[in-house]
Amino acid sequence: MWSRRACLAAGSALALSALADSGPAQPAGAGERSRTRLLIAVEDRKAFCYLPLTIAERLGYFTVQGLDVQVREKADPSQAAQLLLSGGAQVMSVPFSAAIALQARGHRVQSIVLQGRAPQLVLGVSTRTLGYFRDWRDLRGKRIAIPAAGSGPHRMARLLMARSGIHSATDVHFVTLPEAVQAADAFRSGAVDALCYPDPVMTQLEQEGLMRVVADTRTPRGSEEVFGGPMPAGCLCVPEDFARMQPGICQSVVDALVMALKWLQTAGPSDIIKVVPEPYFRGDRALYLAAFARAREAWAPDGMMPERGPLVAARVLSQLDDSGQLQRVPLERTYTNEFARRAKSRFRA
Questions:
Q1: Domain 11-118+231-281+299-347's class?
Q2: What tens digit of pLDDT does each residue of 53-75 get?
């Protein structure tokens, strides 16, 4: 229910087609008969919250598990979900809240491995125009830049302000700036007074001394302060039928991701530079590495969903959705720790 540049899925864009039977993954070509071909749909694969997927792909962990994985990038979580539901992909890499949203709409989709245990979103205010900031009421009448309406940053900002009695629709002005470069330029020029966005742009503005961070979910502790508990972020989801009919394939996928998560726990700057594709750095390796250091705690060390995670995620989403659909979601069906538990034991994650 959150945008492509955030790690919480955007519920407003989830008017999807009926769940189609994805069926078993197709076998690879003649020269690769020992590997199973699998297509994974992902939104904004360069985002930090999905870095474990890239690591698993780049280090050959999928290949080791007998998988021939193709990753297809989509514009946002709803498009990734649509590809999964239509049978065009067997797996999708999206925020966990996408699974909750789809369950609310009757689509039996569940997370099989957690990539991130914090959304990695930041809300910062200008040290120039909001140097006097003390609480959320100081944002009345101000301009807040977000990647998109209904996005993760948008919802996080709305949630924080609602707790102080601020009506986001009338008391503040949200400015939609889809690209990080646009958002940073607007912030520097004073065109906006605050910014809610993921890294690395937030680390950049911090380093320049232009921004004061007032809400930070780049760590589990900061995420708990904002959301009131553990907030699961990026994950790999499959239809329930696929998990039931293809447990071997699901286990192989999860094994590869847990290997990547374990690698990330000890990876140093030189490791990141060698493995992460150059376009991910967006022309500034030093900035990427600085943001990576801030985000290290946000990745799940073992792929396991925290016990209270689904409840916290559903509660947060329901605070901004009065349809009543979310209250009827059977949270125990939105995820399984079965595969991650085996992988954790196997790789001592």
A1: alpha beta
A2: 999 999 999 999 999 999 999 87
Q: Alpha-carbon distance 217 to 95, whole Å? A: 14
Helices (H) and strands (E) in the chain, counts: 14, 10
CATH topology of domain 121-216: D-Maltodextrin-Binding Protein; domain 2 (3.40.190)
In angstroms, what is the C-alpha Rg of the chain? 20
- Strand-pair category, 211-216 with 143-146: unpaired
Please tell me what DSSP assigns to residue 168. Answer: T
Total-model pTM = 0.87
- pLDDT tens, residue by residue, 195-253: 999 999 999 999 999 999 999 999 999 999 999 999 999 999 999 999 999 999 999 99
Please answer whether residues 242 and 84 qualify as being in contact, where contact means their C-beta atoms are separated by less than 8 angstroms.
no
Strands 143-146 and 173-176: parallel
Show the 3-state SS of 283-309: CCHHHHHHHHHHHHHHECCCCCCCCCH
